[in-house]
Automatic annotation (TrEMBL):
It comes from the Bacteria. The keyword Signal applies. It comes from Blastopirellula sediminis. Keywords: Signal. The keyword Signal applies. Residues 44-69 are annotated as: Disordered. Residues 1-24 form the signal peptide. This is Carboxypeptidase regulatory-like domain-containing protein.
Length: 141
């Protein structure tokens, strides 16, 4: 195809972009909801870590998982741009001291305080707050 003017090129590009946009899915997967809250360990805010939410398939839930970094005892799944699908979930929390060192620079979270804590929760069909109090020792299932 040969264009004679820049206006013709611009119209052709606009039409092509509109056509490609119509091919994209209208919905980008299942509805996700914001989860946020506080995480304490041994009665104190957990300095750093990661929390992940995996739909409990044994209870019939499915969909993508969600996660968030833990900073100064707080997490928010909106910080990574994703939320959590509703329903039963298996939650996994990793805890760190928040002090990266040359010896352990692979983890930006610092030295591991506890390996993993697991529990199950029900995520509602709305944005919500869920606080976690990790026992010492944590539930490592």
């Amino acid at each position: 195809m040969r264009f004679h003017t820049s206006a013709q090129r611009a119209v052709a590009i606009a039409l092509l972009a509109a056509a490609c946009g119509a091919c994209a899915p209208a919905d980008n997967g299942p509805r996700r909801y914001r989860m946020q809250g506080e995480i304490t360990y041994d009665g104190q805010p957990l300095p750093a870590g990661r929390i992940s939410f995996a739909p409990d398939t044994e209870q019939g839930n499915s969909g993508p998982g969600g996660y968030a970094d833990i900073v100064d005892g707080y997490y928010d799944t909106n910080n990574n741009g994703k939320g959590v699908v509703p329903g039963p979930h298996n939650v996994r929390i990793e805890g760190y001291d928040g002090q990266p060192s040359p010896k352990n620079d692979f983890y930006r979270y610092g030295t591991m305080v506890f390996r993993v804590h697991r529990e199950q929760i029900e995520v509602p069909e709305k944005a919500s707050t869920h606080n976690f109090d990790v026992p010492n020792p944590p539930n490592e299932k």
